[in-house]
Write a structure and sequence with these properties.
The structure holds two protein chains of two kinds. By secondary structure, chain A is an all-alpha fold. Chain A has helices at 2-28, 36-52, 57-79, 84-104, 106-109, 127-154, 156-166, 168-173, 178-204, 214-227, 232-255, 261-282. By secondary structure, chain B is an alpha/beta fold. Mean pLDDT of chain B is 88; it is low at 14-28. In chain B, helix 3 crosses helix 12, helix 13 packs across helix 14 (334-345) and helix 13 packs parallel to helix 15 (355-362). In chain B, strand 3 (102-106), helix 5 (109-121) and strand 4 form a beta-alpha-beta unit. Classes of the chains: A mainly alpha, B alpha/beta.
């Protein structure tokens, strides 16, 4: 049981990292980024490819984050001046382009065959010790990200991006240029997503393009919507709720064996969907949402 | 609700009685636990529930025959969603919470590759129906605990090459659907064909879900092939063949049977489909084992067992596992059972088709289980080499012409 709980905790921590990135982009700045999985994919492939060449992980992890940032930069330049709904479409397209490149450029990514045998994190340990070490590292990543996020919120930069979210026209009227801030936010958030991708690749040990479908993006969106948009605790709580829904339903079957696995698979998605609808109807600000704001 | 003291007492008493009532709590220690990890949703959804139901049905058959090595089989079913991440969590749950001693029925290669390190760490078996060559060798198969009930993509490719040679083709071209299986088939063909001294004149890979494949087809036909070898699926093959017919070329086609099946012939009509060659690993159709499987499949799914070759494979997984347990004896650990897997399915023993028959025959000597999915002789990589059937479409019907045997 322990190892399974640790496994869930690790995946949750990876999701939290992505949710924090998206929270910075959408929750604080109002950037509708539908391309989360694209940066996740870039991070995963960066570290996977480099690890195959024998590059140690303390180098590949930062590089994964850096490369995800490098991909975010031009995307920001091209599309950040678009209205927000157009940015959503462009970012969704971006993530699909990343996936198709990973599919087609076999010389680099081994195409649809995927990259197997990606080395584990903390490979010198084994069993529970190794799993706990991975979890510990991810918790550290998350704590650093949360600390940074809290600082950002309280800084002039934080007040500026929140102003952009609340009323971009007013910000412009005050003589500030929102575009530059938006690009910075996009790049920063993508670093977290890239890092999450790297951790994912080393944890699962096998990546292929079919794992990086837009569903991941929308799971992260579900997490922050349920948790509370714009709240750092919301990203955390939302990711945990999502995981409880997705994994908890496995145990529902042990209690209710008359539901077949086939039906359960549909019930699982249905329950998440229902939860989303109920949240938007009765608690649009999310579980950790702030009542004092709109 | 007010709870009286009497109710409390009654409640407490019944709680204490519960374990005594449910015999399973004690019997569980003697059970052999199996994890059924199948693609119930996602890209393998068409096969997954049939696969899972056949694991359950075969376990029932084994238990009805008194269990294997004195143990009953107990199945824990999970959905791998055809996705590695979901599969990893499901496998962790099966291993850590349900304490299963084997995981059966992973389908997508990505899923099998992601789950293999976990089963290796736990020293348990993983039986899969995936095609990827990487599953034969370390790191995936580091401990010899992986068993593959499906022909590898390589073997499909070799079968294609045999057929092309036999039919006397000289200028082959390949067209492959861009996924691991499609490309695996095309590459396997190329490797085998070039090993025979032949040359492949063009290799085309196409993206799925297009309304038209005319551009790719033109490129293939530009190489003036006499045969196009396809690594494809039903939907795309239908479109490609329609467009090919419109060009008026006389090229022939060799394709896997999951593309070249009666549905394709029906969709295209007799004129277009005439002469299509479809190659398939043979479910061991005439066999007694297949009849037993087919009856179970009819009962569970209401259709013929021929519709789901993977379900025949999962059926065999349970039976072979149970026979290996029986052969290894009641105190054997999983690696010892894995060693027996090669023996009970391998050649040289008395041929058997059901668990009950095998259990009986094991008392007097060696057995050779002839499965529903193939004759199941595992090579040293835990892979099977089934025979391949070659069917040709003629006058709107697709019928088996001959059988190709590969040397292992």
């Amino acid at each position: 049981m322990d190892a399974y709980l640790i496994a869930i905790a690790i995946i949750t921590a990876i999701y939290v990292l992505m949710a924090l990135g998206l929270n910075l982009q959408y929750g604080l700045t109002g950037l509708v980024n539908f391309g989360v999985v694209g940066f996740f994919c870039v991070g995963a492939y960066t570290t996977a490819i480099l690890s195959q060449k024998g590059v140690p992980q303390y180098i590949t992890f930062p590089l994964a984050a850096l490369l995800a940032m490098a991909f975010a930069w031009p995307l920001g330049l091209v599309s950040i001046r678009l209205r927000e709904d157009y940015f959503a479409i462009v970012s969704l397209g971006f993530s699909e382009v990343v996936r198709l490149v990973a599919t087609s450029e076999g010389w680099l990514t081994q195409g649809v065959q995927g990259i197997p045998g990606i080395p584990k994190m903390f490979g010198t340990f084994s069993g529970t010790t190794q799993a706990l070490a991975v979890l510990g590292l991810l918790v550290v990543f998350n704590l650093v990200a949360i600390a940074a996020m809290l600082r950002i919120v309280r800084s002039p930069f934080g007040r500026m991006i929140e102003a952009i979210r609340d009323n971009e026209e007013a910000v412009k009227a005050l003589g500030k240029d929102p575009a530059g801030f938006k690009i910075q936010v996009l790049v920063l958030g993508s670093a977290l997503t890239g890092l999450a991708g790297a951790a994912y690749a080393h944890y699962i040990g096998f990546i292929s393009p079919e794992q990086f479908i837009p569903l991941i993006t929308f799971q992260i969106w579900m997490a922050i919507i349920m948790g509370g948009v714009g709240r750092i605790s919301g990203a955390l709580v939302g990711a945990i709720i999502l995981m409880v829904f997705l994994e908890g339903s496995r145990f529902l079957r042990d209690v209710m064996p008359f539901i077949s696995e086939v039906a359960m698979a549909s019930v699982r998605l249905g329950v998440v969907g229902l939860a989303l609808v109920l949240f938007t109807m009765y608690r649009p600000q999310g579980l950790m949402g702030d009542f004092t704001r709109k | 609700m007010n709870i009286t003291r009497r109710q409390t007492l009654a409640g407490l008493a019944s709680t204490m009685l519960l374990p005594a009532l449910s015999g399973t709590a004690f019997a569980q220690a003697a059970n052999f636990r199996i994890g059924a990890l199948n693609p119930i949703t996602g890209s393998g959804a068409a096969y997954g529930s049939g696969m899972q139901k056949m694991i359950l049905a075969a376990a029932e058959v084994v238990n009805a025959a008194g269990g294997a090595a004195g143990k009953k089989l107990e199945v824990f079913a999970e959905d791998d969603q055809s996705q590695p991440q979901a599969a990893v969590l499901a496998a962790k749950k099966l291993i850590d919470v349900n304490k299963v001693q084997s995981i059966l029925g992973t389908w997508a290669s990505g899923v099998s590759l992601a789950v293999a390190p976990l089963t290796n760490d736990a020293n348990i078996m993983l039986m899969n129906t995936s095609g990827a060559p990487a599953l034969s060798v370390p790191p995936a198969n580091a401990k010899g605990l992986l068993f593959r009930f499906q022909a590898t993509n390589d073997r499909f490719g070799r079968a294609f090459a045999e057929v092309a040679k036999k039919e006397g083709f000289k200028r082959p071209v390949t067209m492959a659907f861009n996924n691991a299986s499609g490309i695996g088939n095309a590459d396997g063909f190329k490797k085998a064909w070039e090993a025979q001294g032949g040359k492949v004149y063009e290799s085309i890979v196409y993206e799925p879900n297009q309304p038209s494949y005319r551009a790719e087809l033109q490129k293939a036909l530009a190489a003036k092939p006499d045969v196009i070898v396809m690594g494809s699926y039903l939907a795309d093959t239908t479109i490609i063949l329609r467009e090919w017919f419109q060009t008026g070329e006389t090229t022939k086609f060799i394709m896997p049977a999951w593309a070249g099946n009666p549905d394709l012939v029906k969709a295209l009509g007799p004129e277009v489909s005439e002469g299509i060659i479809a190659v398939d690993s043979i479910s061991n159709e005439g066999s007694e084992a297949f009849k037993a499987y087919d009856a179970a499949y009819q009962k569970a799914m209401g259709q013929s067992g021929l519709n789901n070759v993977y379900a025949a494979m999962t059926w065999d997984m349970v039976i072979v596992l149970a026979l290996a347990m029986e052969a290894a004896g009641p105190n054997a650990d999983v690696p010892a059972i894995a060693k027996k897997m090669f023996e009970v399915a391998g050649p040289g023993g008395k041929p058997v088709a059901t668990f009950a028959e095998g259990k009986e025959a094991l008392k007097s000597g060696k057995i050779d289980y002839q499965g529903a999915s193939s004759v199941l002789d595992f090579d040293k990589f835990g892979d099977v080499t089934p025979d391949f059937s070659v069917s040709v479409a003629e006058k709107g019907k697709i019928e088996r012409k001959y059988v190709v045997k590969l040397s292992a």
